[in-house]
Structures are given as C-alpha cells and as structure tokens.
Amino acid sequence: MQFGIFTVGDVTTDPTTGRTPTEHERIKNTVAIAQKAEEVGLDVFATGEHHNPPFVPSSPTTLLGHIAARTENLILSTSTTLITTNDPVKIAEDYATLQHLADGRVDLMMGRGNTGPVYPWFGQDIRQGIPLAIENYALLHKLWREDVVDWEGKFRSALQGFTATPRPLDGVPPFVWHGSIRSPEIAEQAAYYGDGFFANHIFWPKQHTEKMVRLYRQRYAHYGHGTPEQAIVGLGGQVFMRKNSQDAVREFRPYFDNAPVYGHGPSLEEFSSQTPLTVGSPQEVIDRTLSFRDYVGDYQRQLFLVDHAGLPLKTVLEQLDILGEEVVPVLRKEFDNLRPADVPATAPLHPAVLTKQEA
Asked: What DSSP element (H or E) covers 338?
C-alpha cells in the first residue's frame, strides 16, 4: 500500500506566534517537506493547484520537477490538477515532461478545485464545471495514447493532425486519479476509464465517503475493468500527533481554531467526531486509519495532510518523523495482512519505477 502526504500550500499566520511566512519561505519549506517524506520512508508527495491567495502552488509541475531532482524514490503526484481550467494539451505536455524528468515517478489527480472565481480567471464558466471535466479529460486521455489526434469539442478549438510532445515516457501515460468530495459524475468518470478514484475524505462524514467509493467500485466492475474489490481507491486524511493525545489536542487546537478552511466553525472535538481528522497519539492515528477499511474496503493509497493552518516547518517535520517511524510501518503490515491476494496492494506504477524497485 502507498502512504504519503499532500499539501494545499496555504500561507497562513501561525496563531501562536503571529508570524506569517513569506511565499518564498513556504515554497522552499514545501520542498524540504517532500524531501523529508522520502527520508522517513513515505511513498508519495502530492501538491494541490491553486491560483489565489493565501495559496502558493500555482505551478505544480515546476514544484514537482524541482523535487524530482532532489529525490530518488518518491512518487510525485498532485492532489488537484485543475482539469476544468487548464488546457488539456498543456496538461498532456507538462506532465509528460515531468514524467521524463522523474524517470516515471509521476501520477496525477484530476479535480475541479474548490475556488469558484478560478473559472472566469481562465475564461471558463463555473456552471459548466462537470461538462468541462468530462470533455477535457476525454481529450487528455486521447492525447497521451494517440500519436496524431483529430479532435472537436465544445470548450476549446478543434485539433487536426496534432501531436502532443514529448510523448509519455516509454509510451506509458501517467496513472490518473479522479478526485472528488461530492460529485458522483466524477466517480463515474474514473470508473469508465478504469482510472483511480480518490475520495478527499477530510471534510465529510464517513457515510458520504462510503457512498461515493461504493458507486465507483460498482461502476468500475460494470465497465469490465475487474471486480469491485479490485478498483483503485485512494483516501485523504488529516492527522496531528504527539506522544499522548492530551498534548496533541492542546498544541493543535489554536491551529484548528484559526485554520482558513474550517476555523471559527465546529469545535475540534466536533470536527474530529464527524470527519476523519485525528488529533492524538500515534496509536490513535493507527486505529482510526485502519477503521477506514471498514467502510471503503481494501484500498491502495492513503495521503495525510500535515502541513497546513500555519504549522511551523519544525513541527511538520516532527509529524513526518512520527508517521515514518511509528505509524506507517504498522499500517503497512496491518493492511497487507487484511488484503485478499486478488486485490491490488498499490496503485499502478510506471514500468520504469517497477523495474527500479525490483532491481
């Protein structure tokens, strides 16, 4: 099973010190976090894509290309690539280039994002969000698999005899996840193509996540890609850990209370009971994460959010040490012991990565 972290790249004031990092610091710190993730034995680092303050990751391929040069084994991914407002041709070429630079250590997650104004900034209509996601991905899928493409759609100019360059490494496109919090159409899209489905899983109760994953599994089987249990599923999660839960809650509370997304809303205790947010000891994180299998089944990728809400770099690196030393080794063993032999243990990797792992 693949374990890793994802970042939303927020630039947030530390509520305990009143200090706000510069954009330069946040970007450099993100690189340090990714390097630490590899150092402690995690498998995946993923970045979001945002084009508005207080977020900085507006150019995921630039960031991931830099990280690729500083790592050797880490799978580089996105927690959102905006399929609605990015040109599919540019996505095809940018991520193929990244795939070459990283020797195949690349996959990506298609999403619509959570910022409404981004649509007009890039000349699109938010009311067309789902149709844009469907049409743009259909073109991207084709661009990576056909050397010469003729295309005509609703949302972009037609293509005649077009070849996206560079071609995917060894002719194998990056594996694609379709990420969604609430849209069954996206689960359907992932199932249709036999791609992965990633349930964000950090804001909604488990009943909602269970429903979305079940739909994807059923439709994956309907389209003939395998059994429902063999569908490729990923989950997000949020954790904050200290040796004992009381210290974790006390330290994290001011960050939670002032977080850009959910601050000044439900209490930490309410949010933790209603969503997968886990603030406590390493054992509590292990127990809570293992419980995800009870309602989504065996799955292939677990990503944690650990660097948001103004947490200082030192604290984030400490969280990664705990994940790598105390949490993930136990989760790997437990999930592997529970998984049936005919269910994939990981999301598909590029053949170049598999060859390196087997060497």
From this structure: helix 328-338
